[in-house]
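Same chain as my last thread, 686 residues:
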Amino acid sequence: MHSPFRRVAPALVCVAALANTPAQAQTPTPPAPSAQSITITGNYDNAVGSSDAASQGVIQRELLKSRPALRPGEVLEFVPGLIVTQHSGDGKANQYFLRGFNLDHGTDFATRINGMPVNMPSHGHGQGYTDLNFLLPELVSRIEYRKGPYFAGNGDFSSAGSADIVYLKQFDAPFGQITLGPNGYQRGVAGTSFELTPGVKLLGAFEIGRNDGPWTVPERVRKHNGVLTMSGGSAADGWSASLMGYASKWNGTDQVPQRLIDSGALGRFDSLDPTTGGDTSRYSVSGEWHRDSTAGRTHLSAYAIRYELDLNSNFTYALERPADGDQFKQNDKRNVYGLDARHVISHALGSFDARSEVGASLRHDRVRVGLFDSVARRKTATTRDDQLRETLVGAYAQSSVELTPWLRAVGGLRADHVRNHVDALTLAANGGRSSATQVSPKLSLIAGPFAKTEFFFNAGRGLHSNDARGTTATVDPKTGDPVDKVPPLVASRGFEFGARTEVIPGLQSSLALWRLDFDSELLYVGDAGATEASGGSKRRGIEWNNRWIPVSWLLFDADLAWTHARFKNGDRIPNALDRVASVAVTLRDFGPWSASLQLRHLGPGPLIEDNSMRSFPSTLTNLRMGYKFSPRVEATLDIFNLTNKKANDIQYFYESQLPGEAAAVADRHVHAAEPRSARVTLQVRF
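reply #2:
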């Protein structure tokens, strides 16, 4: 896996030399068309009449290229209302926040890349674990997002929302680029595509990444990534096949107790355990085939994934094992196999025009997953070790019917079935089998457009699966106490009222009022090897999204979201943020210049159920400036945390104990946001 990247390195060095080509003088002469001619095309595909919900949309490639991202997973922040942070090393999955969910590492937001699911059920660290560090932003063609359990095509993990990240099959031109920044940041990317034989194209892209970060213990991220895609045919009748490979290793930068920072005994970027961290890899092969005919549109896809993670963490320091420390190791090794199929037809339903879709999916995971005590990444004791087989089957049907010229109805029905087999290698009493089935109805009504305005009502039932180990466990592996089994599937119910308008030329606005209830929020805690009991929940909120293009070269974005989240007994839901916001202004193709300034706000939220401890809000500003020396050579300057604000990416409240402390201390634990830093990218197209 490593040798191809070494061969790419010399080519990347050549990019720097090519940058010395003379700059072509250009005068900024941006056009100023009339407001009526301004559209959102090239950035969003969310126009009136294009979707079934106010909270559904598509983000196009042009906008994705306009803003900086500190980490690959932050590409998802283009989904309105979704915030991406990190509480450990950059080789670990991000933390995601949406609609009053601290999604941990992805439990209720379903993500797919290049047609393959990213969420990992029954994962060693967290249910639905979503590691996006293998994402190559340069390959992203578009992001199709949906929020809420209203769409029959979405199943497990999609109650809060979902995103399909679609990769390119062909580049406009071969390219190479180098990015350099402080603290040892180095990134090289090269990509090309060409016609292999008549009608068959081949795309290849490779990435090498290095980063130490601002941390006292250098993060030492070492990343290798590659994609190879062959495709043929057309958008109406074609196919593609992809090979993907990713490997990374890093040192951990886990959260630290606020009491040590306040006393001056510890810096914000220090660590209490310099040996945490891990390594991970993901290799996959996938393929898809599609065809349009008089019988409708058919799409088939299949994938196979090999995934491994070795993760070492320490969040409580010396609370449980004062002599050795509380470091623990989580292992996850799995093979994932899947099939997806769908067929869409346009037809008449009585006297009404209709469009119907049927689909099915199959996913099978074979997993070896374990939790161990560790010292300096060496196993010292086993908490539990299991082999799992988990199969999830889904089938759905939905129809969109034009009831009148101004009213459309979408009705759907989805069925999901999960079957688990747990072979408990260390505690036989926790092994066994479990299964469950859920049927989920969906309904949407779309009225309009009236004066370039349409209205939506959406309702549906959704679900997420629980960790297979929790569905068969009878004994807590640490304490030996009896525990109750949890249901394999947990139901959610949601509804939404929304509106979208373009009544003001150049301005596209949407408003959504939503509610989402869960039967329970039982959580299998990978750090403890057992299920943490939790009751049902109810969340409601408002989202207001705006896109304004006053002139063709200037774009304003403003996404604002407010959430009210409670357990059904009235308690607060820890880490459910009350509000989030993202505001950006983008200057596009202003002669040779482009620029983007984004402000991202994370509001406060409860850290514990009684709301006596709350997280501090934070607001960060990022800047990107670009200059085209020629059509082939472009330089970009990214400045993160422009105002150098001392903020936190994540905050928790729990008990920990340090060597020398007589007892455990309940305290705020924080992971600092990175200080101001700049990265310079040079890209050459050949």
